[in-house]
Amino acid sequence: MSVDDDRRIVHRSAVRVGTLVAGASAVAIAVGVGILVSVLLTQARTEGGGHRPSPGGVAGDRFVVDLDDVLPWVLALGVAGVVVLGVVAWAAARWSVRPLDEALRRQRAFVSDASHELRTPLTALTSRIQIVQRRQSRGEAIDEPLEQLRRDAQVMDDVLADMLLTAEGSAHAGAARVDESVPAAVSTLASLATDAGVSLRVGELPDVTVAVPAVTVVRMCTALLDNAIGHTPAGSAVTISAVAESHDVVIRVADTGSGIRDDDLPRIFNRFARGAESGRRRGFGLGLSLVREAATRYGGRVEVERTSAAGTVFALHLPRAR
User: Fold this and answer.
1) What DSSP character marks residue 66?
2) Segment 68-97, tens digit of pLDDT
3) How far does Cα 316 stand from its chain's mean position?
4) CATH topology of domain 173-319
């Protein structure tokens, strides 16, 4: 959202709060005055007499009210008015800070999401820098790892741009070829998989296009692969493949880990939900939730297709481009 959008939200909130306070105060005062007038009319009597005034009373009659009879009502109405206006002020305060609460929530979500999304490319970048250093120390050619470093830096730039557009609520349409996006995600995590002793295998990839921007598809595949690598023992493999269906393309990521526990399944896609630690890099429980949010935003979905002691398969359904 832009600065102008934020100002409009704050202005609308201020108008609503002002209207609420003014309206509630007017009602409270009107009710209090009405009750007080009714009490005065009920307790009033003609001067020198003991009768209540009536609509047909003699013109010019003077009426008096005993203070002892009216004072308790005045005090009670005053206390009630303070309580009512206090409740109104409390409600108005909650209403007025709602835009601030929403802004803080979006800010916290963006910071945590950006930290998570950039963490994997940064780790891959560090790994490639170490490869360059080792090759350079041995006098070997470093052109290839330098080119990979350039691609990793571009991936980070694309991810950040995509997240900024998402945070602003901007609609950024696009399309991606599955047979190009999946290998891009695999390339991003190749060094991390090597360090973990896990091999990445690419299965069949159909020549189809999905109605999702390429950077978002790469982000989702990277998160699923990163999660799979983190739960796969060294010496095993993670496989990613895709199949084209009538309306969707299903991208599957299969690991050979120990599976997901039954009590973790209902919350596996919740923010900050983490399963059992694998002894590798500590996760923050954001990757799968971000995959679900991104898939839902473009009309897709992600699910645990199957899980057991032999491994887990995540299925990412994305709509085909028309």
Assistant:
1) -
2) 777 777 778 778 877 877 787 777 777 777
3) 20
4) Heat Shock Protein 90 (3.30.565)
